[in-house]
Design goal:
The protein is mainly alpha-helical. It has helices spanning 2-28, 30-51, 72-90, 92-113, 125-143.
């Protein structure tokens, strides 16, 4: 149950952050806003790390294998950029719908192919049907 609540909070925070970042971009420029977002995220992470019980050493990062797994932060830069641009062009609701469906489909492909060290899962028709229903929902939402 806690996992569901955390996921709901994550979605809510992502939506609010996207709107905030889009507004900041209008007054500063997309790469300035993006740099500020990433910089403030770094400051918050360092502060939480400093005062948390989980004081894992940064040297553990050098042991991560495969090394491409360390690209999450760089990918985050492009996530921020694409969220800002999509919200700017589609509005928050439509943008988030496409983002969520895209996340779901790509996450499922990662699972069924067993990519990036994720345990391979079987292809299930009910999950494909669920994704299809979400896509139909987007079409209905867009046309109303």
């Amino acid at each position: 149950m806690l996992g569901f609540l955390i996921a709901i909070l994550s979605g809510a925070l992502m939506s609010v952050q996207g709107v905030f970042n889009t507004q900041v971009t209008k007054q500063s420029g997309i790469w300035v806003a993006n740099a500020f977002v990433q910089f403030t995220a770094l400051l918050v992470c360092l502060a939480v790390w400093l005062f948390s019980a989980d004081r894992a050493s940064f040297s553990a990062l050098f042991k991560v294998e495969p090394k491409y797994m360390l690209l999450g932060g760089a990918i985050g830069t492009f996530i921020t950029y694409t969220v800002i641009k999509s919200m700017e062009q589609l509005g928050p609701a439509r943008s988030v719908m496409f983002i969520v469906v895209s996340q779901l489909i790509i996450a499922y492909v990662i699972e069924i192919l067993g990519l990036f060290g994720v345990e391979k899962q079987p292809l299930e028709m009910k999950k494909l049907l669920g994704a299809g229903i979400m896509i139909v929902g987007i079409i209905i939402f867009k046309w109303t």
